[in-house]
Design a protein that fits this description.
The protein is of the alpha/beta class. About 50% of the residues lie in helices and about 15% in strands. It has 13 helices and 8 strands. An 8-stranded parallel β-barrel has the order 1-2-3-4-5-6-7-8, surrounded by 7 helices. Helix 1 runs antiparallel to helix 12 and helix 3 crosses helix 13. The longest helix is centred in the N-terminal third of the chain and has 20 residues.
Length: about 325
């Protein structure tokens, strides 16, 4: 087992520690010292900052999905505040005519407090999004929440056609989940999966995962369902282009999505090849989990993080 792999797994473990997250938020010197490393991957700490970055990305030809960062909210009033902030995001997108959608964790808007609270708040946001013609994407979380997230998504799809779902290729169950999701409206976003998971539930992050992702991706393409291929893996991107061309598939319902600050040249290349592209752009102050996962996905980013922390203007 390589040092890089061990570092990545350690970061994923730290990312899920809510005590660490709270400690960082409550200690301004530590928060401020780590902040420059996080800024590389997010749209700022306020909605206004995020809107300006969204405008810039739109000018570069990329759509954007905006996420007000947060997860595992354990207080109903905080969940309501998060829901209101997402309503502010929807309003800003509509008023400023941005090429953007919203993305959220159900646990951020109350699912952990009470699944029904999470569902009601999700309905509020889905309705507000639908009214102004926007898509709402539900993110996936840790494996102990997968069933509940998919259940709420199914319920939302009984009322709304603009609610998408994220599926994680590293879980053994995902092929069956994909077949079920294909029976519902709303975009399907395919990711590899960033959370810690037991070996009994998830594939290791190696060639087996790449093969599973390819199979799921091809199933999505052949279905004709609206989808977002969310990966930075150049091999998978090449496979996707080859499959689309060989099968002479229409690409109107296919988009390629990448994270802010990660391999932007690959997204530009996909756009220049004629595909719709999208940047996932989270904002807010709860960036601890997000930063750890970004560093875990590509451990050499730790070196860049050190540079950002020590010399934030470099």
């Amino acid at each position: 087992m390589s040092v890089e792999f061990e570092a990545a797994e350690a970061l994923r473990h730290i990312a899920l520690d809510e005590t660490v997250k709270s400690y960082i938020l409550q200690h301004p010197p530590l928060y401020q010292s780590l902040r420059p490393a996080a800024m590389r991957f997010i749209g700022g700490e306020t909605l206004n900052q995020c809107v300006e970055i969204t405008k810039s990305l739109n000018q570069q030809g990329h759509a954007v999905t905006i996420d007000f960062m947060g997860e595992s909210t354990r207080d109903a009033s905080l969940a309501e505040q998060a829901t209101q902030e997402f309503l502010n995001v929807i309003q800003a997108i509509a008023e400023q005519d941005l090429d953007a959608s919203i993305s959220l964790d159900l646990s951020h808007i109350g699912m952990v407090v009470d699944p029904e609270l999470g569902y009601r708040n999700a309905c509020t946001l889905a309705a507000a999004s639908e009214q102004v013609g926007l898509e709402m994407m539900i993110s996936m979380e840790s494996t102990d929440r997968t069933d509940l997230i998919l259940e709420i998504h199914q319920r939302l799809c009984e009322q709304f056609r603009n609610v998408g779902i994220t599926l994680q290729a590293y879980l053994y169950r995902t092929y069956d989940d994909l077949l079920a999701a294909l029976q519902r409206p709303g975009k399907i976003r395919l990711v590899k999966g960033a959370y810690e998971a037991p070996q009994s539930l998830a594939r290791s992050r190696d060639a087996e995962l790449d093969a599973a992702y390819s199979q799921l991706m091809e199933t999505l393409f052949q279905s004709g369902h609206s989808c977002s291929i969310a990966t930075h893996d150049q091999s998978l991107l090449s496979d996707a282009q080859k499959f689309i061309q060989e099968q002479t598939l229409a690409s109107e319902k296919i988009e390629f999505e990448m994270l802010q600050g990660v391999t932007p040249e690959r997204l530009t290349s996909m756009r220049e090849s004629g595909y719709r592209t999208r940047v996932y752009l989270p904002y807010g102050q709860e960036w601890h989990l997000y930063l750890c996962n970004r560093l875990a996905e590509y451990p050499p980013n730790l070196y860049q993080a050190i540079v950002d922390i020590v010399s934030p203007d470099v």
